[in-house]
UniProtKB/TrEMBL annotation, chains A, B, C, D:
Pathway, per record: Pyrimidine metabolism; dTTP biosynthesis
Binding partners and assembly: Homotetramer.
HAMAP family found in the cross-reference section: ThyX
Name this polypeptide is given: Flavin-dependent thymidylate synthase
Record organism: Roseicyclus marinus
Length: 301, 301, 301, 301
C-alpha cells in the first residue's frame, strides 16, 4: 500500500479546500491533484502543482509569432503545427510538479534527465523505510538473447522461486542490518550517511520532480517507449495519462508526432521512395546495415 | 503609454474572472496577476502565472530532509536556513511567468541568463511597433571616468539636447525606412526578416519569460545590483517588489543574505579578524590589491 | 575584409607553433585551427579549440555499455548505432570553441540555443566597429507570399536600389551619430552603454561560443536547414564543413539520420504502409490536415 | 588496487605517445593525463582530456571586455578581478573530462550537479565487478548528536567490528546472489537490468564526467567543503589538486574568493561594522537567530 492513513488524510484535506485563482486552470488536472496513483508494489505518482494549460501554449506562441499565427484556424491546429515543426519554446511555458515514490535503480535512470528540478528524500538526514521493489512473477524475466539491454522469456518454476527468495531475503537482511547499525540502543549508532550504503538498489526513495512540458515530453518519449526498462516505463505510462488530462490538445499532438512517430534517415527516405515507385528493395540494395534494415522493416514492413 | 485600450480590456476581463483551484495560492501574487506595471517609457512587466508560494518551498525541503527539518521551529526559520546554506533546490520548486516589454539592448543582456524559458515576439513573422526607448534627461549620463562600464555625471545643456535629437531622429528615420521597405504598395516589399535589421537597439520587443525562483533570485541579485545598467535595473527592481508580494519569507531571506550580503575572501576574513583584534590594517599589510582593498573598505570602512 | 593585418599575424603565429600533447588529436581539425573563414560581408568563423574526436565518442560509449558494445564490429557502426538510437551522451563528450563575428540580428537567433558558453564583445565596455551587414543583391528578397517567415522573389531594379540605399545610409548615419555622442572632444561624451542603443541590428558583434557536439548537432540541424534564415544558415553550413573535418564518422551519421532524415508521424507511417500495400491515399483519406499533407508529399511524393 | 594490469598498460601506452597540437596546452595538466589517482579503497580519478588553460580565460575575457581589460596589468590580476566580480563566463571557456570510479551512493550525490556531461557504466548492458566500498576504521563514525547530517565520534571496539562485519558480509552475499541470478549455467539467467537491483549502494560504478571550469568550481566549493560527506570530499579534494596543476592562476583565485571566502549577510555586515566601531555585539543585539550567530562567531570570533 503506497500511502499511510495519515498521508491519505492530508491528501483528502488538500483536495477538499478549493480557493479562487485568476490563473489558467485545467479542469482535467484539478481532478488529479494530490491523488496518489499506485505504481509497482510500493511506488506512486501524484501531481502536486501545475502551471498553464493548452491555452497557455497557444498564448505564448501568439506572442512569438504575432499576426503570423492568425491564419491558423484554431488552437488544435496551431498546437499540432508547433509540435510538427519542433517549436519547443511554447511547450516550455507549461510546468508541472510531481511527487514520486520509486525504487533507487529507477531514480538513477530518471535523474539523467537534467532539465528538471528535484528535491529527493535525503538518507543523510533521515531514515529510509523498509520498502523494497520485488517484481511480480510476470516481470521476472531472463536476459534477452538478442538484445544486450533487454528482457527475454519470463523465468519459471524453481529458478523464479530462487530469484524471488534471494531478492526478498537480501533486502530484509540488509534492512535489518541497516537498523542494527543505526541503533543507539546500548551503542553509539553508525552515521545515517554511512549506514544507508548497505541498502540495495530496489529500496524505495521519493522526490519532488518539477519540469516543463517540453522536457516532460522528451522524458516520456524515451521512458514510455517499448525499449525502456519496464520499471520506469510504468511510471512514464501513468504520467502520459495525467498529461493527457492536463493538456489534451498538446498530448494528442505529442502522441501522433513523437510517441507514434518515427525518424527516417536519408537512406530510409530514399528506400521508401524507391518502393513507392515499385522497386523491390532488399537490405543489400538499401545501403543500410543489417541492424538498420531490421529496424526499418519492423516499421514499414 | 505601455498598453493599448484593447490590451487593458483583456487584462481587466482576465482579472475579473476567478476560478476555483486546489493548488497553492499566493494572495499577494493574485493581486498582481496580469496588471501591467510600467517600466521606462514604453516598457512593462506583468505576471502571467506562478506556481507555489513560501509553503511550497518548505514542503519541498521537508521531503528532502525529512525528520531533519522538524527541529526548525517555523517556516521562516527553515527558509532562512536554506538560503544561508545555499540549499537551492527547494527554491526551484516555485516558478513564475512574466510578460515583459523591453528595449532590445536590455533584452540582449537579459537573455544571457540561460536557465529560463522564453517566447519572444518574432520580427521574422511580424512587424514591430514604432516604439523606442529615449532616456529621460536625468538618465542621459556621460561615460564614467573611473569605471569602464559605468556612467558618470548627467549630460547637460547643448550636449544633452544634441544626443536626444540624434537618438530620436535616427529612431524615427529608421522606422520610416523600415515601413518603406516593408510596404507592398506599388512594390514587392522587403522580407520582414531583412527589414528588421534596420531598427536600432532601443526599439522595443516583448517576450514571455518563465523561470524558477532560485534562478530568478540569481537574476535579481545581478540585475538589481547598483552596478547593473540602469535600464535593466529598473526592471529588476520592479520584479523584486512582485516577488516580495509572492513569497514574502523567501524574499526577506534573499534580501538579507544575497542582495544585502557580501562575499568576503579568505584574505578579507583574515583582515577583519586582525582589525577586530585591534590591529590597524592597511592596503599594504592586507595582502590585497588596490582594487580589492578599495572595494573592501567601501563595505567595512 | 574580415580580419585586420594584425589579427592575421596573430593567427599565423599561433598556427606556426605546434606543441606536444597526450590528448586525443583530430588531424582534420588541427588543419582548421585559428583560420578565419569569411561569412557574409564582414563576418567569420574560426575554431579556437576542440576536445575529442570520433574515437572519444566511441570510448565514452564503451564505458557506458561495456561488453555490450563489443559485438559492434567497428567505430563507424557504433557511432551510427548511437545516432540512430538517440544516445546523445557520448556525443556530449566532444567539445568545440568558435570565435564568430556576426550581425546582431543573427546573434539574437543564435543565442536562443541555451546549452552553450558565450563570451560576447561588450558594448558597455568597448566601442563597436563601423561594420554593418548589407545583403548582396541576390539576397535582397521580398516577403514570401506563402510563408509568414520566409522569403520570396529577389527584389529588382529601383526597389532594390532604394532598399540598399536606406540600409547603407541609415547604418552610416547611425554610426556617425554613435561616434558623435561618444566623442569627448569638447564635450563630456555619452556613456558607451547608452550610445550603443543607436546602432541598428545589422551592426557586427563577435563572441566566443563553446558547446558540445550533441548540442552543436542540434544547432546545425535547425540552422543549416533550408527553412532557417539565410544569414544564419551560411554560418551553420560553414560549421558543418568544419565538423566534418573534425569528427568525420559522427558527421556522416548526423548527415544521414538528422540533416537528411525526416520525422514521420503515426499518421504518416500508416499512410506509407497503406501506399506500400497499393492503396492510393489522398489528403482526404490520410487523416492529415492540408498543411501536414503538403509537407508529407514534398518528401515522399 | 584500482586498476588492472591491462588498464595500466593502456594508460602507459597513452602516456608514451605525444602528438603535436596547435591548441592551448597546460603543461601541468599534461603531466596528469590518464594517470589513475586512487581514492577510497577501489576508486580513482583520472583526467581524460581538457580544453584551455589560464590564458584561455584571459583571452575570452578580453574578447568580452575589449579595451576595457587593458588597464589590468597582468593575467593574474584580471583572473582575480573576474572571480571577485562573479564574471563566470570566461571560466566556462575551459573544459575538463574525468574518468571516475566511485561508490553508487557517492555517484548519487555527484549527479545532482546537472551542468555536466556524463557517460556512466550501464548495469543494464554489462555486469558490475565485485567491488564495494568498506570504510577504513577511522571513518566508521557515529551519527552526530548536533548535526542531522553529520558524523560524530569514531565507533570503537565491538560496535565497529559488528558494523564492518555487516557491511562486508551483506556486500559479499548480495554479489554472490547477483552472480547466481545472472548465471546461465543450467538455468535461463535473470536479466541484468533486474539482477542489479540486489546490489547495495556501496558497490562501485564508473563514469566519464565532463564539465566546464566554472561549474567545476561550483562543484568543488560544495563538495570539498568541510560539511560535505567524507566519501565525496576525498574525490573533490583530489580534483582540487588536479585543477591547481591545470589552471594555477584561476585555482588560486578560487581558493581565495570561494573556498576560503565566506558570505556575510546584511545583518552580518552591520554587526562587523558595529564591532569595528568598538561596540560589543551579542546574539541578542545582533538581530541574528542563534544558529546564524553561532556560524558567524565560528568565522569572526
Amino acid at each position: 500500500m503506497p500511502l499511510t492513513q495519515e498521508a491519505q488524510a492530508e491528501i483528502d484535506a488538500a483536495r477538499a479546500s478549493a480557493r479562487p485563482t485568476l490563473r489558467a486552470v485545467s479542469e482535467g488536472m484539478e481532478a488529479q491533484l494530490y491523488t496518489a496513483h499506485p505504481v509497482l508494489d510500493h511506488g506512486f505518482v501524484r501531481v502536486i502543482d501545475y502551471m498553464g494549460d493548452d491555452s497557455a501554449i497557444v498564448q505564448a506562441a501568439r506572442v512569438s509569432y504575432g499576426a503570423g499565427t492568425k491564419h491558423v484556424s484554431n488552437d488544435e491546429g496551431l498546437i499540432r503545427y508547433l509540435m510538427r515543426h519542433w517549436h519547443s519554446t511554447p511547450f516550455e511555458m507549461c510546468e508541472v510538479k510531481f511527487h514520486v515514490k520509486l525504487p533507487v535503480f529507477v531514480a538513477r535512470q530518471w535523474i539523467r534527465h537534467r532539465t528538471a528540478n528535484v528535491n529527493e528524500y535525503s538518507a543523510r538526514y533521515s531514515i529510509l523505510d523498509r520498502e523494497f521493489y520485488i517484481p511480480e512473477p510476470g516481470q521476472l524475466a531472463a536476459q534477452s538473447t538478442v538484445n544486450n539491454q533487454g528482457r527475454g522469456a519470463v523465468l519459471e518454476g524453481a529458478e523464479a522461486a530462487r530469484v524471488l527468495e534471494m531478492l526478498k531475503g537480501d533486502a530484509m537482511r540488509a534492512y535489518d542490518h541497516y537498523e542494527a547499525m543505526l541503533s543507539q540502543d546500548g551503542q553509539q549508532g553508525l552515521a545515517r550517511e554511512l549506514a544507508r550504503m548497505n541498502l540495495p538498489a530496489n529500496v524505495y526513495t521519493q522526490w519532488y520532480w518539477k519540469t516543463d512540458l517540453h522536457n516532460l515530453f522528451h522524458f516520456l518519449r524515451l521512458r514510455a517507449d517499448a525499449h525502456a526498462q519496464y520499471e520506469i516505463r510504468v511510471y512514464a505510462e501513468l504520467m502520459c495519462k495525467l498529461v493527457a488530462d492536463w493538456v489534451p490538445l498538446a498530448y494528442a499532438a505529442f502522441a501522433d508526432y513523437r510517441m507514434g512517430g518515427v525518424s527516417v534517415s536519408a537512406k530510409g527516405v530514399e528506400v521508401i521512395r524507391r518502393r513507392l515507385a515499385g522497386e523491390a528493395v532488399t537490405q543489400e540494395t538499401s545501403g543500410m546495415s543489417k541492424g538498420e534494415w531490421r529496424e526499418f522493416v519492423e516499421v514499414f514492413g
